[in-house]
Amino acid sequence: MNRLRTALATAAAAALGLAALAAAPAQAAAQPAFLAASQMPPSSTPWTATQVFPGVPENGGVLCAPYKIPAQNTRYREFSTELDTNGVQVTTVARTEADAVKLVDTLRKSLAGCGPVLERQNPGLHAVSAYHGKLAVEEGAWVYSLDTADPQIGSTDIHLFSVGRDGRTVTLVRWGQMGDLADAPLTGFRTTTKTAVNKLY
Fold first, then answer.
1. What are the tens digits of pLDDT across the range 112-151?
2. DSSP the chain
3. Rounded Cα distance, 164 and 181, in Å
4. What is the overall mean pLDDT for the chain?
């Protein structure tokens, strides 16, 4: 009887070990989740979303933060409406949490200083960046805006950005359309940002 109990215990331990080994790759392969089209800020026409692509969007990333986000371990999804309102979410998993913190700092500096940089690069363009505070979600998320006007062609555009972090994972969300800050759904964008960070895992 003792031999039988020992054999059963050994078999159970082996089964648990195999189960743990089977679960490990699944956990390692788990990818951060993305926003759905319906979770973008409210719009007068419905949002549509692309599939999730590997790497970074065209031109190396996002307006105000080009080439700041590494392509490795990065994926993105783009959003649009019938009225030329558009957006993107870019999510990257850093090697360590310290690397993720550094990336957040880099992106925040790029977004905060975007207006003056664009004015230097595009003579005649008026561009104003603004910070709209930190959101209490996971390790935090920070919201910014970019208001641009080009007198030569008579266009004005407004963009909202946010950067959030959950452990080693950093996500950046951008929303944009024609108009100025008064036309932007800042409250809705804050909600979208919280949802994006909460959905990562």
1. 999 999 999 999 999 999 999 999 999 999 999 999 999 8
2. -HHHHHHHHHHHHHHHHHHHHHHHHHHHH-------GGGSPP-SS--EE---EES--GGGEETTEETTS-STTEEEEEEE-TTS-EEEEEEEE-SSHHHHHHHHHHHHHHHHTHHHHHHHHSTT-EEEEEEEEEE-STT-EEEEEEEEEETTTTEEEEEEEEEEEETTEEEEEEEEEES-GGGS-HHHHHHHHHHHHHHT-
3. 21
4. 88
Report the residue count for the chain: 201
Say what the alpha-carbon torsion angle 83, 107, 33, 59 is, to the nearest 10 degrees. 60
What residues are paired with 157 via a beta bridge?
Answer: 148, 178
Query: pLDDT tens digits, residue range 45-103?
Result: 999 999 999 999 987 788 899 899 999 999 999 999 998 899 999 999 999 999 999 99
CA distance 91 to 77: 9
Q: Bigger pLDDT: 8 or 190? A: 190
Do 86 and 80 contact (CB within 8 A), yes or no?
A: yes
Bridge-based pairing state of the strands 86-93 and 74-80: antiparallel
Pair of tokens at residue 195: 């949802």
